[in-house]
Amino acid sequence: MNRILVTGARGQLGSDLVVALRQQYGDSQVIESGRSHPQDNSSLYEVLDVTDQSQLEAIVKRYRIDTIYHLASLLSAKGEQHPNQCWEININGLRNILEIARSYGIKVFFPSSIAVFGPHTPKLDTPQITVEDPSTLYGITKVTGELLCHYYAYRWGVDVRSLRLPGIISYSAPPGGGTTDFAVEIFDHALRYGHYTCFVRPETRLPMMYMPDAIAAILMLMQADSTAITIRSSYNIAAVSFSAEELVKEIQKHLLDFLCDYKPDFRQAIADSWPSVIDDSKARADWGWKHRYDLAAIVEDMLAKLSLTNIQKQLDKDEERQATSDRRQIGVRG
Ligand code: AKB
Hints:
Blueprint: E1 4-7, H1 12-25, E2 30-34, E3 45-47, H2 53-63, E4 67-70, H3 76-81, H4 83-104, E5 107-113, H5 137-156, E6 160-165, E7 167-169, H6 182-193, E8 195-198, E9 205-210, H7 211-223, E10 235-236, E11 240-243, H8 244-252, E12 259-262, H9 267-272, H10 281-287, H11 295-333
Parallel strand pairs: 1-2, 1-4, 2-3, 4-5, 5-6, 6-10, 7-9, 8-12
Antiparallel strand pairs: 9-11
């Protein structure tokens, strides 16, 4: 039986992963959790601070959890602004999850990142095993997290699986404080204002992935036979790599008047320390990973989905305005 807990469930990745997990395993099998109360009062949501071991244990026991997707984390840019919180959540939070996994025989997914790499890592075709000298605190917590996963797998037999995720592009929920956020923000700005000011230079090339591919990769990894999993730290995983300028040009094929200028900030140095193209042959060989979306397909789908979302938002607003005006008229007549 799968009784699943998702931490950080309302973040960029969690918002889509929860939908996919509920489709596969049933609504009631998937418990969302996060640090704050959700606005929708969902009955399958628990307020959880992952640094609080007793709170975590109580939830695991109450729902008889057997699988945890541990997404709660501070990303690279936010981690530089809030280093203590980054350490607390990313390191102590993960250790709590692995401890509970050890005690209760729970299977764990841990998202690592291309941020484990640094200035001395080969930038092209970055191998699975190579130099890891991150220049951000976030990267340091992810390297440490990978080592912890490897340790708990081999020392305590915890079935923990992990991916070094690239920048994830999606439309359901905004990303929260990463360096690759420009590749998501740009779509909304292009549609709303026809203009975007990008915080990295045009030639900045980073590994990226469309959300449906990221979800497919996580599900494939978690469903793979455990004998196929030869890496317990974290798998390199890749889809596409493109520069900020190439992304702009692809968007301009659809929105002819779209303009982008560039004002690099502190995130440029972070982006410069990361690889451009990742070698993910191990994931492809071990459990059959294959991506679907290239740059053209990502841009086409993002623009279509965001346009629909914007139309729906406008319709909702019009409906709300109409309802308010109807209520006022009834009030006046009454
Ligand atoms: C970030 O930019 O911090 C994340 C990541 C690559 O881990 N998207």
